[in-house]
Amino acid sequence: MATTPPFRRSPHHRGIKRQRKVKILATLGPASRDRETIEKLLKAGADAFRVNMSHGDHDTHRETIANIRAVEKDAMRPIAVLCDLQGPKLRVGTFAEGKAFIRHGAHFTLDRDPTPGDDNRVCLPHPELFGILEKGQRLLIDDGKLRLVVIRAEADSILCSAEVGGAISDRKGVNVPDAIVPVPALTDKDRRDLAFAVEQGADWIGLSFVQRPEDVAEARRLIGGACALMSKIEKPAAVQSIDGIIELSDGIMVARGDLGVELLPEQVPPIQKHIVAKTRASGKPVVVATQMLESMISSPSPTRAEVSDVANAVYDGADAVMLSAETAAGQWPVEAVTIMDRIAVSVEHDSTYRERIHLASTPPDPTTADALSASCATIADTLPIEGIIVFTGSGGSARRVARERPAAPMLVLTPTLATARRLALLWGAHTVTTKDIGSFEEMIAKGKRMALRHGFGAAGTRLVALAGVPFGVPGSTNLLHVVTLTGNELD
């Protein structure tokens, strides 16, 4: 296999061109949502930003998104905004003293009585649970810190034994790993937040606590094509239905927080690899999220285990890795992005990286577009190709090429700003908005100019161009061409 030549920067280069293909998704919050910090995060390596709808109000989120768009305009680089819905999070009620203590091995009752609880009982304000729980099933409270096992489930009360007891306080979260909970994928709050996100021009919607493909279908109906939909896999039921969920989603997030609560810890790593491989094979972006550099919430440097965790996700070929509280509320948001960028660059320069990301086979579908996309990757792996230029309207061609994980980076040219922003989470894609093309000659000339302008080589550099004829028609990818830069295309 031929090696990619050393990176060469055109003297005409402008903007930000990453020295890695995996993307970084950073969550914004009190520590980072101001314009100045967003700009610093972008320069440090963030490619997209997550707005967590579980916290804050619409006025705050509106200001955050406006700050992102202002930075985007200054940087002349499309930035994806992902609005992450809270989802149907189950919680216990309140306690008379704000807290209680459940003794190890003691009996504890969850009931429908709204009266504040004590050491023996508390309200569970979710009537749908009382009809489905059975003897022996588990209830995990406060991210699994407390573990209850059902002894007897009745219409108005659930008697449990405390397999693992401890302190409990108001409104702590409840996970039910052993049953599919008949709750809607979207709460009333989610519907309001979704309408707000669409109104604000969000590029991606994160759908939390997906259990079934039907949950995804409902969200898609409400979105109506205004945004791309990313399903978050954080329930065992979702793992069981992963094929159907991937099919109906535009992207997948492996949300290891709640997934790690409802499954045994040792089950999460193989599930992560399984989901990443399946999503990659579908040609859709997959994000690995939660606790990736958790210690950097309060420390300026990560643990060695965290560094290995991020590296492992990059070696798996994930499209993006995500920072949560590290950038939203941590003391070192810019440093967290900086170290994640350094880890990703280091991994991708490892001599074994190419071999590792191709351990999972992604055979092309029997279509012209897929065959040509696979050919792009083969050419880039065989010849000293410094970039693949993809002309696309919907982003489909770019996703097909990215699925092959080619050696060369992609310069994606699109006339549609919404497409450019969505592709900010796609592996290897450097996306630029430009006017549509009308002829083969115009395609070649524009591709060369943009390659020089955005740092995809210099005089003598060879590039692969992928497009469709007739131009401007979605799904018409049928043209592949190898070009050589002269270096004077901008003169």
Automatic annotation (TrEMBL):
Enzyme Commission number(s) from the entry: 2.7.1.40
All residue ranges annotated as the Pyruvate kinase C-terminal domain in the record: 370-483
GO MF term (any one): pyruvate kinase activity
SUPFAM superfamilies named in the record: Phosphoenolpyruvate/pyruvate domain (SSF51621), PK beta-barrel domain-like (SSF50800), PK C-terminal domain-like (SSF52935)
Positions of the Pyruvate kinase barrel domain: 20-337
InterPro entries per the UniProt record, alphabetical: Pyr_Knase, Pyrv/PenolPyrv_kinase-like_dom, Pyrv_kinase-like_dom_sf, Pyrv_Knase-like_insert_dom_sf, Pyrv_Knase_brl, Pyrv_Knase_C, Pyrv_Knase_C_sf, Pyrv_Knase_insert_dom_sf
Gene3D superfamilies named among the record's database cross-references: Phosphoenolpyruvate-binding domains, PK beta-barrel domain-like, Pyruvate kinase, C-terminal domain
Pathway: Carbohydrate degradation; glycolysis; pyruvate from D-glyceraldehyde 3-phosphate: step 5/5
Keywords, alphabetical: ATP-binding, Glycolysis, Kinase, Magnesium, Metal-binding, Nucleotide-binding, Pyruvate, Transferase
Catalytic activity: pyruvate + ATP = phosphoenolpyruvate + ADP + H(+)
Family: Belongs to the pyruvate kinase family.
The protein, known as: Pyruvate kinase
Organism in which the protein naturally occurs: Novosphingobium clariflavum
This protein's encoding gene: pyk
